[in-house]
């Protein structure tokens, strides 16, 4: 009974507290327009703050993986301080930007706080509980990591209505007040998680001076496998972000503007469900790489059906085609989430547990680069292919969408998905534990 309690108190609960806090970085779309309007800049200018946050998440995980490996208490404290300080700093610079509209200092301050400082908190906070979970839940590693990573994915669905309610109720300057309030709330949540997080008593770490070299040396034992995993991870995120970044506009394009909010919540549930469901399912498989073959194949089929039927370009004229587009959004979200949760366990199957935090951190560099390429890929295609047309915004007005542009994005993503599937088949060999 004591061991069962410790699993939850020392691993699962702190993981949910940490990931449930830092996962709110994906709420950016809720308030990005408000920030742009308040400080007097275009939305495209402020959007870089989110891209920088994801970039520094991956880069900090890659470069600070050894810190996590050596001392999870230090890394979880760094995550707590950086995430809360970055959020509070973002609130301060939004306030400053409201008082000094069009100030470059305000925009740069938001980039530094939301992008760099919060990004460091995101990377260290994301890594800190993962190895601990796998050590406590040795027989169900996928379920354990899926639970935490699902918390990261579900954070958006939980926090979005809370943030919207704060924005609506705080009145003038509500946007910067919201950040200051949430900085305090998330500091408390993450600090409690930091205090609770602990590895099993019987686990013996190798000497700290060995870790930096050993992580790279372990990767070098099977470099082709690592390249395959990295590419699968990168492509899955890039394709996911390319479609998810256009999700609301695609929903409006097929005539469901009035249900855009509800459907975005449903896709978020599929995202979180994919993180937990696919990783738990992978625990039952002889080779965990099989789950990637399943996820990528489903994404290819769903994308191919919408390409062949012209579902997005149809603009909701057919109920069946509309349904195919929704299925595509659900499948891509589930596979996108499942890609995250299965990476650490797939790596541990091939490289063992001793340096998994450092190796996982290096792999997350794929997330950093995808964070800069996924959204921009879709935006570039939508800006240069097709043309805007007016459709109902669901509130009695009109909004502009580009059905041909969104449809064209799918031609690129299906090619990338096929490349990822080939990596899964030919680069990532059957598991052979280190």
The strand order across the widest sheet is 1-2
Indicate the CATH topology of the largest domain.
Answer: Growth Hormone, Chain: A
Work out the strand percent. Answer: under 5%
Corresponding CATH architecture of the largest domain: Up-down Bundle
Largest sheet: 2 strands, antiparallel
Provide the structure class: mainly alpha
Write down the secondary-structure element order.
HHHHHHHHHHHHHHHEEH
Which term fits the overall shape?
A: globular
Question: Could you say how many structural domains there are in total?
Answer: 2
Fraction in helix: over 70%
Unreliable stretches: 207-213
What does this structure look like?
The chain has 434 residues and is mostly helical. It has 2 domains: 1-195, Up-down Bundle (Growth Hormone, Chain: A); 210-434, Growth Hormone, Chain: A (Up-down Bundle), CATH 1.20.1250. It has 16 helices and 2 strands. It has a two-stranded antiparallel ribbon. α3 (43-70) packs parallel to α5 (104-136) and α6 (141-169) crosses α13. The longest helix is centred in the first third of the chain and has 33 residues, at 104-136. The radius of gyration is 21 Å and the shape is globular. The model is unreliable at 207-213 (pLDDT under 50).
């Amino acid at each position: 009974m004591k061991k069962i309690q410790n699993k939850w108190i020392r691993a699962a609960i702190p993981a949910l507290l940490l990931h449930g806090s830092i996962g709110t970085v994906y709420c950016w779309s809720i308030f990005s327009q408000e920030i742009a309007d308040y400080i007097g800049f275009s939305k495209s200018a402020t959007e870089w703050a989110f891209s920088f946050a994801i970039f520094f998440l991956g880069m900090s995980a890659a470069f600070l993986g050894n810190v996590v490996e050596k001392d999870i208490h230090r890394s979880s404290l760094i995550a707590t301080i950086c995430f809360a300080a970055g959020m509070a700093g973002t609130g301060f610079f939004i306030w400053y930007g409201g008082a000094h509209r069009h100030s470059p200092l305000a925009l740069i301050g938001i980039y530094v706080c939301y992008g760099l400082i919060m990004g460091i908190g995101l990377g260290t906070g994301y890594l800190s509980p993962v190895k601990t979970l796998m050590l406590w839940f040795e027989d169900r590693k996928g379920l354990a990591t899926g639970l935490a990573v699902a918390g990261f994915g579900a954070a958006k669905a939980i926090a979005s209505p809370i943030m919207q309610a704060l924005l609506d109720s705080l009145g003038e300057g509500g946007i910067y007040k919201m950040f200051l309030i949430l900085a305090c709330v998330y500091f408390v949540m993450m600090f409690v998680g930091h205090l609770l997080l602990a590895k099993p008593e019987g686990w013996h770490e190798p000497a700290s001076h060995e870790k930096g070299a050993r992580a790279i040396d372990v990767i070098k034992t099977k470099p082709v496998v690592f390249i395959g995993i990295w590419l699968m991870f990168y492509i899955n995120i890039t394709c996911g972000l390319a479609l998810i970044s256009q999700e609301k506009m695609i929903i409006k394009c097929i005539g469901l503007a009035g249900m855009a909010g509800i459907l975005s919540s449903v896709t978020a549930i599929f995202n979180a469900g994919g993180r937990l469901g696919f990783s738990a399912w992978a625990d039952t498989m002889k080779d965990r790489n099989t789950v990637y073959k399943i996820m990528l194949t489903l994404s290819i089929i769903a994308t191919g059906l919408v390409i062949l039927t012209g579902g997005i370009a149809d603009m909701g004229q057919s109920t069946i085609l509309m349904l195919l587009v929704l299925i595509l959004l659900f499948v891509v979200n589930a596979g996108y989430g499942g890609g995250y949760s299965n990476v650490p366990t797939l790596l541990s199957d091939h490289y063992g547990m001793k340096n998994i935090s450092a190796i996982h951190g290096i792999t997350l560099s794929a997330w950093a680069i995808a964070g800069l390429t996924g959204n921009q890929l879709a935006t570039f295609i939508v800006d240069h292919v097709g043309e805007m047309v007016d459709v109902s915004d669901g509130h009695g007005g009109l909004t502009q969408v580009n059905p041909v542009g969104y449809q064209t994005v799918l031609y690129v993503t299906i090619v990338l998905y096929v490349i990822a599937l080939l990596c899964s088949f030919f680069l990532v060999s059957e598991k052979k534990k280190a």
